[in-house]
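Review form for a predicted model. The reviewer records the input and the model, then writes brief findings.
Reviewer: anonymous (R2)
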Amino acid sequence: MLTLSGLSVALALALVPGAAGALKDGECEVCITFLGKFYQSLSDNDVKFNSVDIEKALVKTCKDARGKENRFCYYIGATSDAATKIINEVSRPLGSHIPVERICEKLKKKDGQICELKYDKQLDLSTVDLKKLKVKDLKKILEEWGESCKGCAEKSDFIRKITELMPKYAPVAAKARTDL
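Model under review:
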């Protein structure tokens, strides 16, 4: 009798959905943020929630994606150079209005790299001393803005380019800076 009750308890615990597949805080940051913005843009643009239309919109959105979001698009197969295509693992659930957290959980099971993506920490351009940053960080700022610095050979050239472009890309930071 005791083994029968132990077996039924084990069976009951196995059938109860646990938090084993649930995402931890900060996990799948890029996936959740990107798909959340994408879902909102679908709603705002009155796109039909079927797999074909969602896939077309996702590929179009991924063409403009940069940085970690572009890497996420690559992993799900929404870029032209992607090796695998699991884009339907995103489009079908979105078409059924499944929460993006659940979609990202399923994507994590397919490809663990998707949830390893994290956004880089954003610099506060209004207070940071550009002269103390590394050239690599200065290049990253320009890359995030979609700009490049042709002919820049020294750190001062990158700093000059950033300060020239700051009113265009970060107007609040440009106004707050006192060393311009």
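Findings: The two ends are 82 Å apart (CA to CA).
Further findings: Residues 1-20 have pLDDT under 50 and may be disordered.
Recommendation: see findings above.
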